[in-house]
Structure formats: structure tokens, C-alpha cells
Amino acid sequence: MTYLQLVNSVLRRLREDEVTTVGQNSYSKLIGEFVNDAKRSVEDAYDWTALRTTITVTTSDSSYNYSLTGSQNKTKLLSVNNDTQKTEMQYRGTAWMNNAYLIATPPTGVPQFYNFKGVDTNGDTTVDVYPKPNGVYNLDFNVVQRTADFTEDSTSLVIPSSPVIQIATALGARERGETGGTSAAELFALADNTLADAIAMDAAQHPEETIWYS
């Protein structure tokens, strides 16, 4: 569903007229804010399959700090692979990484370890790797990438729409005080159930993450 379709779906549930653009009036703008609030809540609730992607970093000789372009500090890391060497990279803490680079001449070689290092001027997450690369390697950062707030009517939602709509409706009902028969508390309870069902369905695609084997 698009941003506009989400807003109109909420408006209908609140017994309001549909709009042709989210910015049509002050109330549709408010519902648009609630849709974005609901989207963030749902995206943060689970590592959705639709949000999983790979950010590839290409190293250069002797450079050890890189940006995860497009991450906007909204990522959850799942794994890191050195695709060139076909190996999995390992995390090391900040103190470990700092100590590794305190020596006079840090070694160069195949990157084996990584550590996050703040954000760059674009707001993207940056990462240090060790040893310093001695050439070009493709490092694949497998992440869950949360999306930016919607601003355009045509922007499409990729995660399940039902919990987003239900949460946004509950937020709208709480702000207004009534929905013509259903309390905000009941709507939030419905939203919780809808979110739980959506998570259960998506989790079935990744049983290795939810089933424990002795």
C-alpha cells in the first residue's frame, strides 16, 4: 500500500472523508504523522523479511574506515561476510579495535574483524575493519534496514500493512476521543493482536531464528 492509501484506510475507520493527497488538510496531515509513528513501531517490532538487505563495502589499500552508504543509522546487523575471500567476519569491541591500531605500524592483510564507529557527515553508519585491507575486498553487511518517514503520497509500504493501519487508527481514536463505538484501548488491543499475527507469519520464513535445538 502507498502512503496515501494507508492514510485513507485510517480515515475511513475514523469515519472521515478520504483525501486525494496526504497534505490536503490539517487532519489528513495529522493522520499521516500517525501512520509514520505506526510504521516505525511495526518496523522496530521485528526483523521483517522485507527489510532485510545487503550493504556492500568495497575496500581500498590501507583504508580501514568505511561508510555503510544509505544506512542512515537505522540498521540492525545480522552478519558480515568477506565475499571476496568467502569468509565470515567477526565482531570486536571498541577497546579491542582501538588497541589494535595503537601500535606504530598496524598490519595489513585480509579484513577479518569489524567494529562500528559512529556516523559520517551524511548520517550513515561507519565501520572500522582490521587488519587494514591490503587491496580490494567486497565486504557484505547483511542488515535489517528500517525505512525513512514517508513524505510522498506514492511511497509504498513493504512491511505488512494491517498492523500499521490498526496502530495508526488507535492513535487517531485516542487523539480524537471516540470512533463511534470502539474505545482506543480496544483498538490498541486489536493492533497488538494484528501485529503478533503478522510477526508469526513472517517468522515462519526464518525458523532457524525462533526454534531452539538442544
What structural class results from the helix and strand content? alpha+beta
Number of strands: 10
N- to C-terminal separation?
41 Å
**Share of residues in strands:** 15-25%
Poorly predicted ranges: none
Largest sheet: 4 strands, antiparallel
The ordered H/E elements are HHEEEEEHEEEEEHH
Tell me the overall shape: elongated
Number of domains: 2
Number of helices: 5
What is the averaged pLDDT score?
94
> What level of helicity do the residues show?
25-40%
Strand order of the largest sheet: 1-10-3-4
| Rounded radius of gyration (Å) | 22 Å
Can you tag this structure with a few keywords?
214 residues, alpha+beta, 2 domains, 4-stranded antiparallel β-sheet, 4-stranded mixed β-sheet, 5 helices, 10 strands, elongated
Structural features, described:
The protein has 214 residues and is α+β, with helices and mostly antiparallel strands. The chain contains five helices and ten strands, in the order ααβββββαβββββαα. It has a four-stranded antiparallel β-sheet, with no helix packed on it.
